[in-house]
From TrEMBL:
InterPro entries: YdjY-like. It comes from uncultured bacterium contig00036. This is Lipoprotein.
Amino acid sequence: MKKIIVCGFVLVLAAAVIFGGCSRKPKYTVPEYQLAAGEETTSAPGIIINKGKREVFMFAVVNGKYFTQPTRHGVVFADGSNGDKSVLIGLGDEKVFYAAMVAVGFGPSNKLTIDDMSKGVSVEGEPLDVFVAWDGKEVPFANVIRASQERPMDIRFGGNLENAKEYNTGCILCLDSCAVGITSNAAYETGASETINFYGKKDVLPADGTMVRVIFRARAFS
């Protein structure tokens, strides 16, 4: 009888390990990076700042799932509750990202509220130019996303630090206006993603699992 109990325990334990492991999010490693002139590290290894250029960038991994499935999440920290729901999986904490944006001189609005999420409100905050970089080239973020209803992308530094701390979603860049994401797209009001679908562009982005950098800069007005 003891042998049966032990064997049964081992089988249950093995099943717990196997199925528990399957439910865990994959772990990503920040690549080695040689800082360029003017660049500084932050408390998150995957986030680099350049105060002179007013620039923040984050390492991220392409999530090919959203080439064909819709999502409202552009970039989300891998360890956030929405970490596997974005076109690009960020390798830096969203709270550190907020601090990095402030450190280089960007101004958040912190005006959008959770109640606004059902009211069709557009996010405010300092306008940003965002790029995705790999293989020596930079591509505007607008060019790596497609939507069922196209509008010119308008990324803003919404801020939302307190909501980010409360909800811990990991949201760094949302594709419609959001009261939790640190940055989001003012071109689409809150709730827009209920009727509009967003996808990553397979013909523009590199393959699933490719390491890229997401670069945030002050808007260059022409």
